[in-house]
Ligase-associated DNA damage response exonuclease (Sphingomonas olei), 332 residues
Amino acid sequence: MPKLGDWLEPHPHGIFIRPADAWVDPSLPQPRALVTHGHADHARGGHGAVWATPETLAIMETRYGEQAGHPVGYGESVRLGEVKATFVPAGHVLGSAQILLEYRGERIVVSGDYKRRPDPTCAPFEPVACDVFITEATFGLPVFRHPDTGDEIDKLVARLHANPDRCVLVGAYALGKAQRVIAELRERGHEAPIYIHGALQRLCDLYADHGVRLGELIPVAGVPKAAMAGHVVMCPPGALNDRWSRRLPDPITAMASGWMRVRQRARQKLVELPLIMSDHADWDELTDTIEEIAPREVWVTHGREEALIHWCAMRQIKARALALVGFEDEDD
């Protein structure tokens, strides 16, 4: 008796779709790859052919150069052998997609990374009915419940206004989080110029080219220190306490990440203003999504798998961990 989904083969370096002779998010170069989104732990260079959304392909080309890309828009399907693959919004970052795989009457959704709360920089997550839901569990513990995004942005603006002689330096991952912080500031009425580290320039330009409203962004290079007082400055997390930050006017160090819920992480990174903002689902969003979709089985790719698998077992949902390697949390 064949097992549900036995035509998918989880390997440490990705998920192989046997009847399609293709991989989902492989961490090693493959002849045929379906890619959920542009973060480096899911999108690698060197594939023979890549199926992804137009936005994800643009991100991959920005990072890795020209791709042998086959663009697939949201709601569109492609056939690879006997397998039908449909790309559906995941709500994670610009261009992020879940991939619905259909084969001989079975429906499996590879969700990639996802979140459920609104984000002005990307299309919202769309739940898809399926037999098997393949999910992440980055924040798969009940302690992780993300606060309201607007409240975190208000904290940032309040600190800025209370310290007009200083700047607020926000560390945020270069793809997705940096642009989301900027867009959320604009949504809350902060229209002043925002200064950015040079490492953020290309991806901010890409987001703007795809219609995301980021407002006036000014590279820090060459700007007098005094001119940045009373402004927000954005940089990659690695530059927060780097020599680069010495060119700024007495910066208040902030970091936008779901991991800022963990006080020890904030202290380790010398963060004065933790901003709890995640591009991943929190515990409630993970469990609510599974309840909404009601799959027969749940497969967990990475993160805090044990708690989510236990939660499923308590509700008579068959669940297992796939033990994929190479998936990291830095994109949060």
